[in-house]
Amino acid sequence: MARLMARRRNIVIAAGSLLALAGVISGTVAVATQDTDGMGGVSAQGSASPDGKGGGGASAVPSDALPSGPVSASLAHETERGGKNVALTIDDGPDPVWTPRTLAVLKQNGVKAVFCMIGPSARAHPDLVKQIVAAGHRLCDHSVDHNTAMDKRSEEYQRQQVLDAKKMIEEAAGGTAAVHYYRAPGGAFTPYSRGLSAANGMRPLGWNVDTHDWQRPGVDRIVATVKREVREGPIILFHDGGGERSQSVEALARCISWLKEEGYGFDFPKV
Ligand SMILES: [Zn+2]
């Protein structure tokens, strides 16, 4: 096992060097360096997280212990820089009404976010995907059909949901932007889907603060949830698709203002 890990580390280093030379083909490099035994190892070691939240389960395993290639297969619950920073993640778009308003709020505040997209929605609105990339935000694969029970389905089904959506998002973005993360709908990750996404260069993306904004509980309650729960962790979940999202847009603006007043910075989730 130690020899295997050492060999893989060398592979990772080699992949890193290649990435530096050819960033635009990072996805291809990640796939090419995945050993055939990698997926089995991930499946055997990981454990499913029912909702993507919290620090338990597989996320408690040091990422070095997960033989998944250049990207860790553990759920990301931290930001790249750490410290007093949060990461805004915005799910279920892109949407022709709510995504532009969300982008406007982020631009007004000079804040970057991660957009977790439904594959067919990305394909239907490539202009929005390109706007998101051009504004410096990052892309996340949020599956084809948003089946929150996909963890109960076959590996073949999960593979289709993850990889087809990745392709749709990449094509909508114009073929040059990376999809940095994969977030299972409703947090329905499996060890298999985490390993698969990691092998394809996408870090499985969890969350710490669930605003429940999609249930439209009122702007005040969404903001209160962020104020109360941000101490639990930095990755905050909002939505710009899947329904009427005016509360989400207003709450996002108020949360960003409050977070800035409290001294928080803004960062991306750790890849
Ligand atoms: Zn979702």
Automatic annotation (TrEMBL):
SUPFAM superfamilies per UniProt: Glycoside hydrolase/deacetylase
Single GO MF annotation: hydrolase activity, acting on carbon-nitrogen (but not peptide) bonds
InterPro entries on file: Glyco_hydro/deAcase_b/a-brl, NODB_dom, Polysacc_deacetylase_ArnD
Alphabetical UniProt keywords: Hydrolase, Signal
Signal peptide residue numbers: 1-22
A Pfam family matched in the record: Polysacc_deac_1
Residue segments, region Disordered: 40-88
Domain NodB homology: 84-267
Gene3D superfamilies: Glycoside hydrolase/deacetylase
UniProt-listed CDD domains: CE4_NodB_like_6s_7s (cd10917)
GO process terms (BP): carbohydrate metabolic process
Highest taxon above the source species: Bacteria
Protein's name according to its UniProt entry: Hydrolase
Organism per entry: Streptomyces cinnamoneus
Taxonomy of the source species: Bacteria, Bacillati, Actinomycetota, Actinomycetes, Kitasatosporales
